[in-house]
Design a protein that fits this description.
single chain; 5 strands; 110 residues; five-stranded mixed sheet; alpha+beta
């Protein structure tokens, strides 16, 4: 079984597809996936940020993981969309709960 990629959204930005933050940014994005039959959906969160934004956050934290984080030098919705879509399509498991569990390496279940 493979997940179907539904899309991306960010409550922080609103219109993520047309967002143009420059080279210093950090935003929480939601990833929506569903089973192949389209019944129901799961939501995951991931931080999308530039390396300088991440470095700035490190200045406030003693230690920080890059887990559930996507780094981009310059924000590009088409590139982000394609990257996340490829990640979703790489996950395969016998059952839907296992698909969700395996995808949680990439993004945090909400």
């Amino acid at each position: 079984m493979r997940a179907r990629f539904i899309g991306l959204h960010s409550s922080d930005v609103g219109d993520l597809e047309n967002w143009s933050p420059g080279q210093h940014f950090g935003v929480l994005a939601l990833v929506f996936i569903s089973p192949p039959d389209g019944r129901g959906q799961e939501t995951f969160s991931v931080t999308v940020c530039s390396p300088p934004w991440f470095a700035e956050q490190m200045a406030h934290d003693e230690i920080r993981s890059g887990y559930h984080t996507i780094f981009m030098h310059e924000f590009s919705y088409p590139k982000l969309h394609a990257f996340v879509e490829r990640a979703v399509h790489r996950i395969e498991a016998p059952t839907w709960p296992e698909v969700v569990e395996r995808f949680s390496w990439f993004a945090l279940p909400v």
